[in-house]
Design goal:
The complex is a heterodimer. Chain A is mostly beta strands. Chain A contains no helices and ten strands. In chain A, the strands form three sheets. Chain A has a four-stranded antiparallel beta sheet with strand order 2-3-4-8, with no helix packed on it. Chain A has a three-stranded antiparallel beta sheet with strand order 1-10-9, with no helix packed on it. Chain B is mainly α. Chain B has one domain. Chain B is built from 20 helices and no strands. At the A-B interface, loops of A face helix 2 and helix 7 of B. The complex binds FE2/S2 (inorganic) cluster (FES). The site of FE2/S2 (inorganic) cluster has 10 residues of chain A, from loops.
Chain lengths: ~100, ~350
């Protein structure tokens, strides 16, 4: 797994309780910084209609999709109710120095 | 002037539905005004305060006017109280259903959910079915054959519109839907937008509602009076006029089959009472462009992006002054619609995407 760590950004590029889009080799991801300053990553597109979650709103451990307000727990990927019914894929994230890395696998 | 108008097929399982999917008109990428992320986050921020205040006013107003109306039942003095009660029940519930369905009214989730259920009951919209229909309305706004919430189809059925000012057809259809769902049946059209795993929930709610209406009818018989129905059920008819009046303005007479809300939605400046009942949905272009922004932040959003939008209608009356002639013209030519010109400060419409909307007259 450690071979596949990919540098995303420096920690300060994402505000606390916010999300950033990250595109890599034709795939798109959402990278989150929680209110308690931890980093998380999920697939970048909503499982409902493939909208970029990075345009949505982070509230505590929830990301709300900007299109129909579907909600996911971005730490677990769990879909929290209609109109999102399919969970999000999550990815390991680590912080090395000031750099955020994601393991895409 | 086009003489051979295109006959529209509004069925969700018909020709136009299929064509919208094939041509990519359905689930398309819609135009959004650019807003810096920082400002957008401020606009999207959730709060409990405004909606708690407004809900206390709304439900408190219903208790007072409904209570006084009931106490004065039998005299003409009850009329003004029922007029207000009716609007709070049969119209304000529309905007509460809508905003809580988006989950943006309150910051606290359970508060959204409770008000959503109450409002759904009053406006007679199954909370499951209508959540999904509204989801589709946002994906495919006024796309013929895809949007299940097109209030005025072309050519407009003006008789139907007038009946609905008193909720007559809508409430009738709602009762039929409730009875059908309570019998365990989900229609073919409902199946196109309600996922299979959600359908049993729609059936459960319909059965609960049926029991509530049955209890109200039993109470009316027991009391030998329609008073229980004046409080539960009938206000959906005699109080519907305000939500119909404001709702028709949302998209009426504007373009269909476009993917820019500036062309198919209408922002209207309104008086404070209507904005309270309607929960600021008069900022309708703004709402469709950014459904994440709560109702109480829409005036701020409007101020921020109005340079990029067509000029809003200055009043409800002005909205009707442009919409009614458009409906009348659509009776003869269903391709007719009101074009929306943009201010010089706005980003132009995408000509490659909206050729019809930009060229037709
Ligand atoms: S696209 Fe995300 S909730 Fe619909």
């Amino acid at each position: 797994m450690s071979d596949s760590w990919i540098a995303v950004c420096s920690r300060d590029e994402i505000d606390e309780e916010d999300v950033m889009r990250f595109d890599h080799e034709g795939r798109t991801f959402a990278i989150y910084r929680s209110p308690d300053d931890a980093f998380f990553a999920t697939d970048g597109l909503c499982t409902h209609e493939k909208i970029h979650l990075a345009d949505g709103l982070v509230m505590d451990e929830v990301i709300e999709c900007p299109k129909h307000n579907g909600r996911f727990n971005y730490k677990t990927g769990k879909a929290l109710g209609a109109p999102v019914c399919v969970n999000l894929q999550t990815y390991p994230v680590k912080l090395d120095g000031d750099t955020v890395y994601i393991a895409i696998g | 002037m086009t003489t051979s108008a295109t006959k529209r097929d509004y069925s969700l399982i018909g020709r136009d539905a299929q064509r919208a999917v094939e041509t990519g008109l359905s689930a398309a990428e819609w135009y959004h005004t650019d807003i810096p992320r920082k400002e957008m986050k401020e606009l999207m921020k959730r709060e409990d305060g405004p909606a708690i205040r407004d809900t206390a006013l709304w439900l408190g107003g219903m208790v007072v006017t409904g209570g006084l109306g009931a106490a004065l039942w039998g005299s003409w003095w009850c009329v003004p109280f029922f007029l207000v009660y009716g609007v709070l029940y049969g119209s304000a519930s529309d905007s509460r259903w809508h905003e809580c369905g988006h989950g943006t009214a309150f910051k606290t989730r359970w508060m959204n959910d409770v008000v959503y259920q109450i409002a759904c009951f009053m406006i007679m919209r199954n909370p499951i079915t209508w959540r999904w229909s509204h989801t589709r309305h946002h994906t495919d706004t006024v796309i013929v054959g895809r949007d299940p919430e097109i209030a005025v189809m072309r050519p407009p059925d003006l008789f139907r519109l007038i009946l609905n000012v008193f909720g007559i057809l809508d409430a009738g259809y709602a009762m039929v839907d409730m009875l059908r769902n309570a019998a365990g049946i989900i229609s073919r059209e409902e199946k196109t937008f309600v996922p299979a795993e959600e359908q049993p929930k729609a059936i459960r709610v319909a059965r609960i509602w049926l029991a509530l209406y049955a209890a109200t009818i039993v109470a009316a018989f027991a009391m030998g009076s329609i008073l229980p129905l004046m409080l539960i059920g009938l206000p959906r008819l005699y109080g519907a006029w305000h939500h119909v009046m404001t709702g028709l303005l949302q998209h009426g007479g504007l373009a269909d089959n476009v993917i820019d809300h500036r062309l198919n939605s209408r922002t209207v400046y309104m008086n404070p009472f209507s904005r309270f009942v309607y929960w600021n949905m008069n900022y309708h272009v703004e709402h469709h462009m950014f459904p994440m922004v709560p109702y109480h932040a829409l005036p701020r959003l409007h101020a921020m992006i109005k340079h990029d939008l067509p000029a809003p209608c200055p009043s409800i009356l002005a909205g009707y002054r442009e919409m009614i002639p458009a409906f009348l013209r659509q009776l003869k030519n269903e391709d007719y619609f009101l074009k929306r010109s943009l201010p010089p400060t706005a980003k132009p419409y995408r000509e490659d995407f909206e050729p019809q909307a930009l060229a037709a007259e």
